[in-house]
Amino acid sequence: MEKEKLVQTVDSKYIQQHLANERTYLAWVRTAIAIIGLGFLITNVHFSLKPFFSQTGDMLANIIGIISVIFGVVTILISTYSYFKKLKTINEQTFKASKLFVGILSTLLIVIILIFAVYLFFII
Asked: Which domain holds residue 39?
């Protein structure tokens, strides 16, 4: 039997960059899961101690939970888009770092932190 001739792909030329891109994507997915989990944690802790909190605290706990889930899903969607865009630009050797992606996610994270701070202010 003859061995098949292996053909070098474009992806294999830039394997280290593709593997780094994949690690970055997986880190964003882990971050999204943590953000969603934090939202559920805050909501569950709040409603297990509900008799001690006001109606405003209930509303803020719900908002934190909803925004955390939405933010987590948006993070996964944006990071997936970014992953495929980087994959293409690495192969075409036209890669440019994305400032917009980091800016959007940072802004959304700051919004969640501010809402959480308001929540803590109302329950303490």
From this structure: 15-123
User: Would you give the distance in Å from CA 39 to the centre of its chain?
Assistant: 13
Long-range contacts of 10-14 (CB under 8 A, 24+ apart): 10/91, 11/91, 14/90, 14/91
Widest distance between CA atoms in the chain: 77
* Residue 9 resides in a domain: no
Q: Is 2's pLDDT higher than 80?
A: no
> Both tokens of residue 44?
């569950």
What per-residue string of b and e applies to 66-80 under the rule 16 or more CB within 10 Å gives b? Answer: ebbbebbeebbebbe
Distance, in Å, from the CA atom of 35 to the CA atom of 112, rounded to the nearest integer, reads 9
Crossing angle of helices 15-48/55-92, nearest 10°? 170
Give the pLDDT score at 72.
92
Domain count, the chain: 1
Count CB-CB contacts under 10 A for residue 43: 19
Q: What is the mean pLDDT of residues 61-76?
A: 88
Q: What is the pLDDT of residue 118?
A: 79
